[in-house]
Amino acid sequence: GVRHEAAGKIVLDLEKLYDVAGEALEYVARYARAIQQQRGDYNGRVLSIRADDLRSLAIVYDESTSSLVERLNEHGVLVTDPRSLFAN
Ligand code: C2E
Ligand code: C2E
Ligand code: C2E
Fold this sequence. Notes:
The chain is mostly helical. 45% of the residues lie in helices and 9% in strands.
């Protein structure tokens, strides 16, 4: 099938999101927990999320999607290369 560029894929570092990000990213953390439940994906260190869901979250925060991505980046919760986390 069609595989989109990894650069566009949003992958969250759950440890950082849950432990460090705190109130500034409260809804993202709550959403990620809900996604984990829906998928039954409890043991992962990272979580890939839908572009559609990111757009919805940006609406909740009343900001653009790119500005939300920027904030996720500033808080260090975006994983650019998930495979690098398992390299060592
Ligand atoms: P699943 O991963 O076990 O997800 C079960 C259901 O949980 C999904 O049913 C959907 O209603 C909800 N869900 C899970 N993750 C998300 C999410 O990130 N955002 C939202 N909005 N809902 C989510 P659905 O959509 O009928 O999908 C059925 C199955 O199809 C999924 O089971 C999964 O195995 C696969 N699937 C659907 N979309 C994707 C995708 O973009 N990537 C991958 N890898 N699998 C997908
Ligand atoms: P990748 O997308 O670069 O992901 C690398 C690793 O990050 C995955 O290794 C997995 O350990 C972790 N990871 C990424 N997203 C999630 C997530 O939402 N939940 C959890 N629990 N872990 C996540 P893994 O599983 O051995 O997969 C290796 C590669 O296989 C992935 O590289 C991807 O290219 C492909 N792959 C695995 N599952 C899927 C899938 O559902 N859909 C697609 N399209 N590719 C998949
Ligand atoms: P996307 O919707 O932006 O989803 C990005 C990534 O989030 C997916 O990468 C997958 O790792 C994760 N993801 C999203 N929804 C689910 C889900 O329901 N369950 C699980 N376990 N993981 C999910 P992936 O798999 O490489 O897919 C790349 C793109 O391909 C997706 O981007 C979506 O546009 C499309 N796609 C893949 N599978 C499906 C599907 O079953 N239904 C639809 N409508 N689109 C799909």
